[in-house]
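Hi Y.,

Following your request, here is the sequence exactly as I used it, all 430 residues.
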Amino acid sequence: MTFGGPPPQQPSPYTPPPASLQASPPAYTAAPSPTFPTAPAPATGYASSLAQPTPYTPPAPVAPAPAPSLPALPVPTRKGRTVSLWLFGVLGFLLIALVGYFVWALGSVASIVGLVLALIPLTIVFLGVRLIDRWEPEPKRLIAFAIAWGAVAAVGLTLLVDTALTLLFDIRSEEFSAVVQAPIVEEFWKGLGVFLIFLLARRAFDGPVDGIVYGALVGAGFAFTENIQYFGLSLIEGGGEQLTVTFVVRGLLSPFAHAMFTAMTGFAIGLVARRHGSAGSAFGAGAVGLIGAILLHALWNGSATFADFFGLYFTLQVPLFVGFILGIVALRREEARLTRARLSDYAAAGWFTPEEVTMLATPAGRKVGLAWAAQLRGDRRRLMRAFIKDATELASVRQRAITGRDPLAVDDERALLIRTRATRAALLAY
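Below is the corresponding structure, written out as tokens. Let me know if you'd prefer a different format.
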């Protein structure tokens, strides 16, 4: 069957060619078989090199993306919030004289041992004060000045006055020196340091909490230098055993004693600072606080001189210290209430949300805010801390502006509003 087109032609019968044209077939010689190179057998016995196991190299860990960084931001002006470097220069000269006195009176070895041991109670007090001042830290230069004034100026001036009184009045009674002379002279020079901070850095002295902080730091500095002398003398007079007893009593049982005494003076000055009082008012209030500091100091020295020290320590000194701590807690709550009220003013103007005010002004809110920031990309707790500190300082600036005692409050307010806005944007950035 065809599907169109001509049918295929049939093949013709085959006719062989004539004999003359037929040729004998040539003799065939087999060509040698070609040889091919063979691949060496796998050394490990696998059937194929393709079956060799491939070593596994895990991928390099991917570093978490860093938290957003802040651009260069304005900072509040330092005018009225610091002390001159010249004062540190004067303290430096006094320090040289004080070092010479210790080397002459105690010797190099005892002075060094006393110095090392005295750093322990100083660190304890400093960390305690840091907890009080965590969210609105005072300027670092003022912190350094407070400690240096207590450790150098107050101690040096006390030594000069004690020497003069001994020469003029021939005071030889150790009981009188411990219970009367030492509390009056020491607390006067320590309190003067707190009053100088009020005069020179008025814009960094916002209230009683700041006064307690400055007073405690001055007292801690004084105790540091005094402990060097006590520890060195104990080593010289009684060796390691007496040194251990002195260290336990002064360094571990009562590291906050001097800090608590001078904090009374600072607290009184801070009350005037909160009400925008004058320098004269601060001096008068400081004098009242000084009386309280002298009485506490005399009570402490008297318990060690005339009574059973350990008995009064647990029945009187410990309750006084607990009351001191509770008073600080109450003041911190009042300060948190004031911070919340001032930040609420900005919330009413649209700068913060009510939820942010709670987060920025309360201990529980700050804790929640830090926990939330830790879960963000890059762990943004650093940004949250900056946000909290700037907002807390902003509340203090507004309080100073309301009282009318800070002509630079407007500039500081503008700088802090810019900072808080930029920090919030960095916290919420993806």
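Confidence is low (pLDDT under 50) at residues 1-31, 33-39.

Thanks again,
Q.
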